[in-house]
Design goal:
The protein has 314 residues and is an alpha+beta fold. 41% of the residues lie in helices and 14% in strands. The protein folds into two domains: 14-239, Peptidase C12, ubiquitin carboxyl-terminal hydrolase (Ubiquitin C-terminal Hydrolase UCH-l3); 286-313, no CATH class. It has helices at residues 14-23, 39-43, 92-101, 120-129, 135-143, 146-153, 210-222, 241-248, 251-271, 276-293, 296-313, and strands at 29-33, 48-56, 72-73, 177-185, 188-192, 200-204, 232-239. The longest helix is centred in the last third of the chain and has 21 residues, at 251-271. The radius of gyration is 23 Å and the shape is globular.
Length: 314
C-alpha cells in the first residue's frame, strides 16, 4: 500500500461512523454496534443494509488471484458492485463504510420495505465519476478525495505527539486491525475487502436470509483465529432509528435515540480536543497548592509509596 497521505486512524465507534457519513451528505442512516453474534440481534434492527467487521489482521500469504479462503471471487467486469482497492493505510474504516453505502443507494437495496440510502450529491458525483474505473483506480480516486479525507480525519484522536501521516490501525501491543464490509447486492452476499483483488461472493442472499447468511460467514472467519481471540467488532448499517420512532409514534424510542445522539456529539467533541495544555495547567495548580500548604514533599513521598505497592502487587 502507498503512503497514508494524511489519513488518520479512526475508532470503530457507532457515533463516529454515523457522524462521518452525515458529514458526507448521507441521510437517515446510522450505525449500531452488535454486541452478540447472532441473527436475531441483526433482525431486530431491520432494515439492515450491511455490516462492518473489524478484526486483527493475520499476516497470511498474499491473497490468491483465483481462490479466497472462503467464498468465490466475483471477477466479472459486468458485476454491478461498487468495489475499490485499498491503496493507502488508515482509510480502511471509511472505505468499508462506503462499500456498504454506495452499494445500497438504488435498486440493490435488500428489500423488505427498506428505502434506498440517500447518499447525497458529493458521493453521488464520486460514484458516477468512478463508475467505469477498475478497482485499483477507483481506490486511488477515493484516496485522493479531499471531501472524504476531510470527513474521515475530523474524527481522529487529537495528539500533539503523533505524526498523523504515519499512524496505523494498531493497538498498544502493535497488532494491526482491518475493516471490511458485508452487504447484499442483487441477491448475492458480498464481502468487500480492499486488500483482496475482487469482491468475494458468498452466495444467494436476500433481506430475509441476510442475518443468518452473514453470521455464518463471520463465524467461519472467526474460527480461523486462535481459541480465545475476542478482539473483534461488528457494526450494523441501519436506517436512522429516530425516523422509525417518528413513523410509529414511539416516544420512548425517540427520546432514547435523541439522548444517544447528544452523547455521540459530546464524545466526538472530546475526540477532536487536545487536553495536554489543560492537564499541564491543572498539574501546575495542584503542585502550587501543595507547595503553598507546605505538604509538597509529603505528597510526593505518599505517591511514591503507592506506586511501589502497585508494583509489588503485579
Amino acid at each position: 500500500m502507498a503512503d497514508g497521505g494524511g489519513w488518520s486512524t479512526i475508532e470503530s465507534d457507532e457515533g463516529v461512523f454515523t457522524s462521518l457519513i452525515e458529514n458526507l451528505g448521507v441521510k437517515d442512516i446510522q450505525f449500531e454496534e452488535l454486541i452478540s453474534l447472532d441473527a436475531d440481534t441483526i433482525r431486530t434492527l431491520s432494515p439492515v443494509y450491511g455490516v462492518i467487521f473489524l478484526f486483527k489482521y493475520l499476516r497470511d500469504p498474499a491473497p490468491s488471484s483465483t481462490t479466497p479462503q472462503d467464498g468465490t471471487y466475483e471477477t466479472s467486469s459486468s458485476s454491478d458492485v461498487f468495489f475499490a482497492a485499498q491503496t493507502i493505510q488508515n482509510a480502511c474504516g471509511t472505505q468499508a463504510i462506503l462499500s456498504v453505502i454506495l452499494n445500497q443507494d438504488g435498486s440493490h437495496t435488500p428489500g423488505g420495505g427498506a428505502p434506498p440510502i440517500e447518499i447525497g450529491s458529493e458521493l453521488r458525483s464520486f460514484k458516477e465519476f468512478t463508475a467505469g474505473f477498475p478497482a485499483d483506480l477507483r481506490g486511488e480516486a477515493l484516496s485522493n478525495s479531499e471531501k472524504v479525507r476531510t470527513a474521515h480525519n475530523a474524527f481522529a484522536r487529537a495528539s500533539p505527539f503523533v505524526d498523523e501521516t504515519a499512524r496505523q490501525a494498531r493497538d498498544d501491543d502493535g497488532d494491526v486491525y482491518h475493516f471490511i464490509a458485508y452487504t447484499p447486492v442483487n441477491g448475492v452476499l458480498y464481502e468487500l475487502d480492499g486488500l483482496q483483488p475482487y469482491p468475494i461472493s458468498h452466495g444467494e442472499c436476500d433481506a430475509g436470509s441476510f442475518p443468518e447468511k452473514v453470521i455464518g460467514v463471520l463465524q467461519r472467519r472467526i474460527a480461523r483465529y486462535p481459541e480465545g481471540e475476542t478482539r473483534f467488532n461488528l457494526m450494523a448499517v441501519v436506517r436512522d432509528l429516530r425516523v422509525q420512532a417518528r413513523e410509529t409514534g414511539d416516544v420512548e424510542l425517540l427520546e432514547r435515540e435523541e439522548r444517544k445522539r447528544r452523547a455521540w456529539a459530546w464524545e466526538n467533541t472530546l475526540r477532536r480536543s487536545n487536553f495536554v495544555g489543560f492537564i499541564g495547567e491543572m498539574m501546575k495548580g495542584v503542585v502550587g497548592m501543595k507547595d503553598h500548604e507546605g505538604k509538597y514533599d509529603e505528597w510526593v513521598d505518599q505517591a511514591q509509596q503507592e506506586t511501589q505497592k502497585k508494583l509489588m502487587r503485579q
